[in-house]
Amino acid sequence: MFGPEGPTLRELTVQALSSVEHGYDLLAPKFDHTPFRTPDVVLDSVARALAPLGPFTDGLDLCCGTGAGTRLLTGVCRRSVTGVDFSAGMLDIARRRATAADGPGVAWVRGDARALPFTAAFDLVVSFGAFGHFLPRELPGLFTQVRTVLRPGGRFVFPVFAPPGPAHPGFWTLLGFDAVMRVRNALWRPPFVMYYRTFRLSAVLRELERAGLTVELGVLPGFGRRADGSPRARLVVARRAGAAPLGGQPAAGSVNS
């Protein structure tokens, strides 16, 4: 599961017994060598899906970690890109790995996704692999924050993968992981919120709409389909109502389906 450059079992144990913030501070130097880092194949697929929706002017990578998604934004945004995360350790790695190049300026901001320090500043917000750190009851506040930082016509975009079914070994792996985390959080403080089976698409779409966002659901090609014919990977595109943002395409743009 982890390569030789990844964290040891002891390091993972220390991380898991810390808070989410401190745990990721500890994991940051080796994070990109773990399965928790969003694979490039996913980032590339999302970048291709974003291309016909742009160009975008200012982008935000929500819960940016070490900056993999932030680098994606530099290819689709013309003026500025911001990565926000509440782990100082993850941001430190992101800053070190950022490369100077022609394109939009990049800023790194330490902040909580549930209390973002921006207002109507972006026409594109993306997020990758972070939603397991939010409990279902936190989604309404999180999505309201995203709506607040979007300009009218701006979009909130993220991939969603279908969970494995009971016949797949991954189903039991994820179920077991969540069960262990629940026991850990019942017995140990501070809690470490990291669950794989709490971010359910139907509930997510409902909460996005309640937050005042119009949702389109596309398909990310290249990841195949499940036995029932449904796609394994979808792209959620939630748009704030209003005129298209400066430099963007008309609000009627859609993703491939």
TrEMBL record:
Pfam families: Methyltransf_25 (PF13649)
Keyword Cell membrane: no
GO term, biological process aspect, one: methylation
Single GO MF annotation: methyltransferase activity
Keyword terms, alphabetized: Methyltransferase, S-adenosyl-L-methionine, Transferase
Methyltransferase listed as a keyword: yes
Domain of life from the UniProt record: Bacteria
Entries under CDD domains matching the protein: AdoMet_MTases (cd02440)
Record-annotated Methyltransferase domain positions: 60-154
InterPro entries listed in its UniProt record: Methyltransf_25 (IPR041698), SAM-dependent_MTases_sf (IPR029063)
Protein's name in the database: Class I SAM-dependent methyltransferase
Organism, scientific name: Streptomyces argyrophylli
Lineage of the organism: Bacteria, Bacillati, Actinomycetota, Actinomycetes, Kitasatosporales
